[in-house]
Each structure stands twice: as C-alpha cells, then as structure tokens.
Design brief:
The complex is a heterodimer of chains A (about 475) and B (about 250). Chain A has about 475 residues and is an alpha/beta fold. In chain A, a hairpin with a 4-residue loop joins strand 5 and strand 6. Chain A is globular and about 50 Å long. Helices cover about 20% and strands about 20% of the residues of chain B. Chain B contains 5 helices and 12 strands. In chain B, strand 5 and strand 6 form a beta hairpin. Classes of the chains: A alpha/beta (about 475), B alpha/beta (about 250). Chains A and B meet through helix 2, helix 3, helix 4, strand 1 and helix 5 of A and helix 1, strand 9 and strand 10 of B. The complex binds iron/sulfur cluster (SF4). Iron/sulfur cluster binds next to helix 14 of chain A.
C-alpha cells in the first residue's frame, strides 16, 4: 500500500486521541446505530439470508481458488469488448500506468468515483505530483478532499463531520477548486447538497477523463459493475471520453448470474436499502454510449500475499459493504482514522496488515484493535470469520517479536476504548467456555448486553486471545519469513 | 465486435521491453498460482488455465429463494408501486390509451418546457404534450445540451418488484445512458404486468450483460450529511414512474 498513511501513530495512540473527541464519538455513535438498526430490518425481509450468505462466500472462495483462470478469462473478455487491460503489481505501478494514460491524452483534470483501491494506492497524491488535478465527486469524498482530510468510514467517509463543519468547509474551500459555494450558504443538508451539485456539475460537463474502481468484474463477459447512490458514479462512468478503472484482482466473480447473490446482499448490508439508487454496468466500449476508451488496471498490491495465507485469504471475499464497521464497539469509539488505512473497522484490522505486512507499529497493532466479540462475523454478508483472522494475525505479530509491545499497547488502548475492559474480557472467556454448548444467545449483563441481545453466536474462538497468545508465544519460534515483507 | 484503435498498449509504461524480464501480468499470475499451491485441483501451475471451461469444483450452493413474493402478476405490480414509492419515486398508473395524457400532465406538473426522448420512443407517447419542445436524443446530443433540457421520457427493459428497481438497457425506447442522467426530471414508462419481474434472480436472465445497463431505484440520493437523506445530488431529482396497463386491463381503484 502507499505511503499515504505511513507515519501515522499506531492504533492505540490514535484511538487514545480520537476517543477524547466527543463530537466525533457522538457523530459516529449516531451513524453506526442508525445504519445498524435499518440494516437489520432490510435483512429480515429476506428469510433466505443465511443461504445467500453461504452462496456469496462460496462464489468468492471458488473464484479466489481459481483466480488465475478467471483473471485471464476477464482479460480476454474485456479486450474483445474494446477495452485495454493493464496489470499492476503494486500501488506505484498502478499510479504510473494511470498517469501515463492521462498524459497521453494531454488532459490535466480527472473526475473520480469513490474508490478505495485508489485511496489504497494514493493515486490523488501521485497525480498531483504529475500535475494532474483529481476531483472527488462523491459528496462525502468531496467534503473530505476539500477539508484536506481523510475518509473515516467505507460507506459514509465524512461521517465524522457535522453539517456546520461541512458548511464551513464548502464556504472556505470550494472557490479554490472551481465554482464557489453560494453566498449565505446554510447548513441545511438540502442546501449543502445543492451547492455540491452545482460545483461538481461544472466539472462533469468539462472533464474528459473519469477514474473509478468497481464493485464487481464479471469474468465471463468482461462486465464491470459500480453501485452507488448519488449519480456521480454514473456521471464519471458515462460522460468522459476516457475511463480508467483501477480494481483489485479479488473483485472478480465468474458469471453474470452470480450478481443475483451480491445485488441482494450488498445494498441491504451496506445502506440498508432494498437496492441502491443506481447501478451501472458496462462492458468494454459501446459505440455512441459512454467513454470511447476504456482502460482496466488490475491491481495486486499485496493481494497475492493475502491469497497465500490459507487462513487470511478469506478476507479477499470482502465486498466492502461496511456492515462490520457499524457493529464494532471498537470502531464506534475509535473512529475510522485510528486505523491508519483506507480500510477501517474490523475489515481494516485484518485486511491492512495482510496487504501491507505487519512490520510497522501501526500495522502490528491493528490485529489488536478488536474485542473479538464476533459481531462483525455475524453481519458479514460473505461470512468472513474476522475474529479467526485477528487471532491468526496476532500470532503472526507475536512470532515476529512484536508480541510484548503490541500486547501492552493493546491493553493500554483498551483502557481508553472500552468502558469496562474487565467485563469484556470476561465475555471472551465466557464465550470460549460455553463453546461446546452452542448457545444461541449469551445472556450477559453490562456492556456485553447490547451485543449479546442482538446476535447469534458465531463459532467462538477456542480460547480467549490472551490465552492463545500466551500459548503461541510459549511455542515461541522464529518470525515467519513468508509474509511480512514491506511493500 | 470491433476493436477501436487505442493509443495506449497494455504494457507497463515504465517497464522494460526486455523479453527476459517478466511482465507484471506474468508476475501476478505466477504469484497467484504459487499462492494457491495448497489447493488440490486448483489451476496452480497450469499454463493454459484460461482455456477450456470453468474450473470444476463442488457446485455453488444456490438453495436461496428465486423470489420472496408470490408470483402473481397483479400483486407484483402493486408491490413494485409500493417499493418505488418507498424510495421516493412518484408512481402513476394508467392504461395505454391514457398514456399520452398522463405523460403530458407529468411534464406540466413539473413545469417542463423542454423534453428529450430516445430515438425509438413509441409513436404518440408525447402526442398530448403540445406545449413542450421535444428533442430527439440521438448519438450526437451532448451533455451540455442535455443540461439545458428539463425532462426526459423513456421506456425501460424491465422492473423488479421486490427491490423497486427499473432497469434500462439502452434499447431504442431508452437511448443512451446520458439521456436519463443529466436532465433533472425522468419520466419512465413500465408496461405492466409484462415488464415486471419479482426479484433480482428473475431479472438477470432477461438482461443482456454486454449492453450498457443502468439500474435505478428511486431518484438520486445521498445520506452523506449526518445521514439525512437528500434527493438528487447529481442524477434526476424527480423520478416519475408510469405503470401502464393494457387498455382492457381492469384498473385498480385510485
Ligand atoms: S468484511 Fe464483510 S461485513 Fe466487513 S465490509 Fe467486508 S463484506 Fe462487509
């Protein structure tokens, strides 16, 4: 991953700061609880949710297990449909290819659809260095960009800003980027959205290059899929002459039919809607409809390392719905920035250390940014066993000699993160102890009640992580060589 | 399918042209195969993995429901109307004979003086909209021109009742994707019951994936500011969906 987030404090230190930000905590609590409640309602409409979840996991696993086959099939299909496929081993290469394509067109401006892949590669900064202005067009990404800030949530990246802060950002910054905010802009969300509409429409109508990621790539047909709400995605995918899509190699699904699973599970898990307002699908280029040139950049950037880890590879199933963020007690208190990566929350705690390795204090601390309560696993629409991977990664960190430091740091963090760390640790132990009984609910009092009331138990770790960690540390051994190279 | 000329070749622009240096493509594929060495029956190491049929694995368990609602045409249309309205589309019902008048009324109600239509819109749909200037949105219309037009009127490929979704596939009665994107008001006509399916699994087999597809569920919306829902950040702020039944169909009570 890029240097964008390097040099940030480790999770406990960052969390220590953010948990003292009462505004941030209030915004986050409101947001995560609202989305969480709505999501449960949306999912209850589908009695076959467990089957959809199983099918989604199986499709993704099958694809990952034959990733070379499907990548080549996709490449052929995209090429036959008039697109050009590029391969990028890391962030720098993806950014170089993108910059080269843009330079060849002679353009110096691009409009962007919200894309975590390009946050991961630090594309905006790379383009800036190359003299290219990249405009974020998702409302929240626009807010974050204008504020010289970073996203803090996968779905609602500016959730840490309230309406008054947003009004001030628009008022102070829009004029530096294009059309200024209207005079006397209020902090009414409708007025703020209108200001963004006018500011960005000017850019959509003039900009010749669009940059996107994709939610899915269909190997069989070469079709790319972007789901969104605002229509800025449709603008970027339809209006420019040239479209560049930068997509992680794990985003493949084999067939068009497979969308029948994910177009049911993704919107309901993500925004708690039956369907997101807009979905755009395009296959290469189409005469007279949409961009004349289409470039697909397939991004590795640590994904093949993740694939090589037989426990950790299930993280590559992730469809970035963000449901796990909204149920995570640690995320709710710490906020997205503390994770020091475009991927916050439980998925960030397992994906980032796998993509980047665990050599920095930040990355080594991420597997500890969890209570192992299992709520993330419960809600995940592709059944990623996040607690299992967390424990696995903690072992890895312990093996490489970071154990003492990370453990101490995690305990320090817990003091700030959790109102009742002792109770939570009791929950872990209780959960493990009762594993053989397979209870449907844990009737625990105190802070554990909120989640024990609302969830079924996942497969519980065989032992609390501290016990496991001690055992793993006792087993000692040299650091593993296979995974933790910096990249 | 034709291959338009591309100025950029699919190669690493900064990379070496030395054939002894593996390309990034080769490196990634080799890393994928090495990463999958634990997979019995995986394609690891198989040079010709792209050829042939899909890899054989245990079949994907597809015991999920094909639909969650009874497959009765009338109730599907009602459900579609309910779910469209849930996401703040405006739903209207009429018979084929009444369609031109309904469309004209919707344009008037929106205050539209100009409208764009796809080249293959059925004859007569705008017959009653005499005071609206109509433009045919052909291959050459630009986004800047569309930005000055009040409304767009189209058909659709199908509609999905469970999710309240209309799907456009760029057929002649729907036109290019840009037509339904830039104007602020979209009137979309759904022929009921024949264009209504129950669910996403029922919709996909009726669609051609290689056509440019746009799925629309309610108007453009954002919840980015304190999770307050605001309609229309970029796409049309107003979506009118007209459910048009055959003339001999029994009309539900208002
Ligand atoms: S890990 Fe699961 S719940 Fe979290 S974002 Fe990914 S798919 Fe969603």
């Amino acid at each position: 991953m890029s240097g964008t987030y390097l040099g940030l404090p480790s999770f406990p230190d960052a969390a220590h700061t953010s948990t003292h930000d009462t505004q941030l905590r209030a915004n986050l609590t409101h947001a995560t609880h609202t989305i969480r409640t709505k999501r449960a309602t949306a999912i209850n409409e589908l009695p076959d949710w467990p089957q959809l979840r199983t099918a989604g996991a199986a499709i993704k696993d099958h694809t990952l297990h034959h990733l070379d086959h499907y990548l080549l099939q996709l490449e052929t299909a995209v090429t036959n449909a008039g697109g050009t496929v590029h391969w990028a081993t890391d962030a720098d290469e993806a950014n170089r290819i993108t910059t080269h394509i843009i330079h060849t067109t002679g353009e110096t401006e691009v409009v962007k659809v919200k894309s975590m892949a390009t946050q991961e590669t630090g594309l905006n900064e790379a383009l800036h260095t190359a003299g290219i202005h990249a405009y974020e067009t998702d409302l929240a990404e626009l807010i974050v960009q204008l504020a010289h800030d970073k996203p803090s949530h996968i779905l609602v990246p500016a959730i840490h800003k309230n309406r008054t802060e947003i009004r001030d950002i628009f008022h102070n910054e829009m004029a530096h980027w294009g059309r200024p905010a209207p005079d006397h802009l209020t902090d009414n969300p409708t007025d703020l959205a209108e200001a963004a509409r006018l500011h960005l429409r000017e850019k959509f109508l003039r900009t010749k290059i669009g940059i996107s990621g994709a939610n899915f790539m269909i190997a069989e047909t070469g079709t790319l899929v972007v789901v969104e709400s605002e229509g800025n995605g449709r603008m970027c995918l339809t209006l420019p002459d040239t479209l560049i899509s930068i997509v992680g190699i794990e985003k493949i699904i084999p067939t068009f039919q497979d969308l029948e699973v994910f177009l049911q599970t993704l919107p309901r898990s993500s925004t708690a809607e039956r369907m997101n307002p807009y979905t755009t699908m395009w296959t290469g280029t189409t005469t007279h409809d949409g961009p004349k040139n289409f470039h697909l950049i397939l991004l590795d950037n640590g994904r093949t390392d993740t694939l090589a880890d037989t426990t950790g590879r299930q993280a590559l199933r992730c469809i970035r719905c963000s449901a796990c963020l909204n149920v995570c007690p640690v995320y709710e208190r710490a906020g997205g920035h503390a994770y020091g990566s475009p991927y916050p929350g439980p998925i960030g705690a397992i994906l980032t250390p796998q993509l980047r390795g665990t050599t920095t204090p930040l990355d080594a601390s991420l597997p500890y940014a969890s209570t192992l309560c299992g709520a993330c696993y419960d809600v995940c629409p592709v059944a990623i066993n996040i607690p299992e991977i967390l424990v696995h990664l903690r072992e890895r960190v312990a093996e490489q000699g970071e154990g003492h430091r990370a453990e101490r740091a995690a305990m320090r963090a817990a003091t700030w993160l959790l109102d009742h760390p002792a109770a939570l640790s009791a929950v872990e132990r209780a959960a493990s102890a009762t594993r053989g009984l397979h209870p449907a609910r844990l009737p625990l009092p105190g802070p554990a009640k909120a989640w024990s009331d609302a969830r079924d138990l996942p497969d519980v770790a065989a032992e609390p992580f501290r016990a496991g960690w001690k055992k793993a540390r006792g087993a000692g051994g040299a650091p593993r060589k296979d995974k933790d190279t910096p990249r | 399918m034709t291959h338009p000329a591309h100025p950029i070749r699919p190669a690493d622009p900064a990379g070496s042209s030395d054939p002894a240096t593996p390309s990034s493509r080769d490196r990634i594929l080799a890393r994928v195969r090495a990463a999958l060495a634990d997979r019995p029956g995986s394609t690891a190491g198989a040079a010709g993995a792209a050829e042939g049929t899909a890899p054989a694995d245990p079949p994907i368990p597809r015991d999920y429901a094909r639909a969650h609602v009874p497959d009765d045409p009338a109730s599907l249309v009602d459900l579609l109307a309910t779910h469209l309205a849930d996401y703040r589309a405006h739903v209207h019902r009429c018979t084929a004979a009444d369609l031109p008048r309904t469309i004209a009324e919707l344009l008037t109600a929106h205050g539209s003086r100009t409208a764009v239509v796809p080249p293959g819109l059925p004859d007569g749909w705008l017959r009653d909209a005499a005071d609206v200037t109509t433009t045919i949105g052909g291959d050459d219309i630009t986004a800047a021109e569309l930005d000055r037009i009040d409304s767009v009127v189209t058909g659709c490929a199908l509609a999905i009742a469970e999710t309240g979704t209309i799907v456009l596939d760029a057929s002649p009665d729907q036109g290019r994707r840009v037509l339904t994107l830039v104007p602020d008001h979209h009137v979309c006509v759904v022929r009921v019951p024949e264009q209504v399916v129950a669910s996403v699994p029922q919709a996909l087999p009726r669609l051609d994936p290689v056509r440019p597809l746009t799925w629309i569920s309610g108007p453009s919306a954002t919840s980015d500011i304190e999770l307050d829902r605001v309609e229309g950040v970029h796409g049309p702020r107003t979506l009118d969906v007209v459910l048009v039944a055959p003339d001999d169909a029994e009309q539900p009570g208002a």
